[in-house]
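Hi R.,

Here's the chain you asked about this morning:
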Amino acid sequence: MFSFLLALAFQVGPFYQQKADYTAVRPFVSVEGETVDVLWPLFTSHEDWWRFCYIVNWQDYAEDSGYQFSILPIWFNGRDKDKGAYAGLFPVWGHHPHLLMLYDLDFALWPLWTRYKMPRGRDWLTTNTVLFPFVSWRSDGAWSVWPVYGVNYQRESDHRYVLWPLVTWATYREDRDTGGAGYSWMAWPLYGQVRREREDQDLFLPPFFSYARTRQSTRVRAPWPLFEYERTPFRSRISFWPFWERNINYSYSRSENKEIARVNRFGWKLVEVYDDEVRVFPFYASGRGHFRLWPFYESEDLKSGFTHRRVLSLFPIRWVPAVDRNWAKFWTFYEADSSPLYTDHSLLWGIIRWRTLK
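And here is the predicted structure, written out as tokens:
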């Protein structure tokens, strides 16, 4: 059954669209909620951040009275609630309170000199480098003159090397989260050995051939990465790279050992077959409430029994919000939004609209 639809949105071809909480003048500007795109990906802004060409970035930390501005990779400046103002001109000089995993990072004429902190349990570990990565020393006594000789202390182990990576060795203390007390050594590229309370491993021509075993798991590589087999209480994996791989996950209940997920991969990850989904990147995907036949057709189940469908779907990655806001309409000739009671159809960017009742 058909009925004419009283439009709840206004649209002029692919160029202009307006509806609740959304306005777009494509490809120049789009506004959706707190997100504003200008010639995306040239410029995007949100409530507390904006970026230009993914190079110039601004982040506002209003709750902490802080901010950060950066021009990657050469300049940054900002204010931190605890550390105060900071700035840097890479590689000349700079201080940053928190960059990636590094805290209180200082550098001057990098790689000439660098100093930074990292958390170590309840304490902090300070590392200094000169002519990174050749000379370094840390607050816990570790030091290295790479690649000649180095000493590295970790929570449960001490590591050393001579003419890295030719000769390396380590001693381990008892630790409940690792393989336990013991030792390891390697004379690369000939042979390596691990002997710990809960782990044994032999490596031949490392990393190509190895056999590792613990009380509950086994792993064989012969040779890596062409063949790999692994079996643990929670996973079983066999791989003939890049042709085929099977991965099975088991329940975390040791008593059940019940299979909960399985995937077969072909051609590395080009074809993936799950229990409830099949993917052939980027051409086909079916399952988990969506279907995709690239570049022709795409459908997605939304909340509360609603479904969205469209033709064409040229972007190789599905449902990228910025692409949908700014570019997808140019190649989307047909769309349909379905509810449990009816389906609204739109052909040629809304020039032709109709509703079918279920």
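One quick note: Residues 209 and 222 are 5 Å apart (CA to CA).

Cheers,
M.
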